[in-house]
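Give me structure tokens for this 202-residue protein.
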Amino acid sequence: MKKTLFICFLLIPALALGGCGLFGREYAYRKLSDGTVEITKYNGKAEVLEIPSQLDGKTVTSIGTYAFSDCNSLRSVTIPGSVKNIGELAFLFCGNLTTVTLGKGVTKIGDSAFSNCRVLTSVTIPDGVTDIGDYAFYICEMLTSISLPYSVRHIGKDAFSVQKTGSGSFTAPIEGLTVSLQEDSYAEQYCRENGIKYVYSD
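Here you go.
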């Protein structure tokens, strides 16, 4: 009887994953209703990472909440074209992340997705992205270059801001950031209204 109970206790955490990738692998994931998968946790230690477009033969379409948060080994990440959604807080506090390249399938960058990536300097955002959430690149104080495509239709509160202190705590645009964008785009309107430096792309 004692042996049986011990085995049951071992099985409970695995069952709680609800179809996730096996515990201990580099990636944990959950299956979505359309048969694709969302990465829920990265367990690896790579410095330069190309996220796979498939896991166990299933297409990766989403990066989940906190999936890569606190991955301090990570210096460069490329997100595949199969991914459509980058969840909230997905790369929060990746303290050594410097370069992010998004695949052409991405349409949404969630709230605080790259918040507090303090040494992030360059982000490539492809045409097709429509939504950039609140605080998406908040306190990315070393960010100097980002390109925003014409397809962007919404940029949330303080998406490209840092926290300042003085007579009180307040936010301000990232110093040194120049946004490359197209004339008469939503991105231009956003940058103009929020005091963010921008140039027109070719």
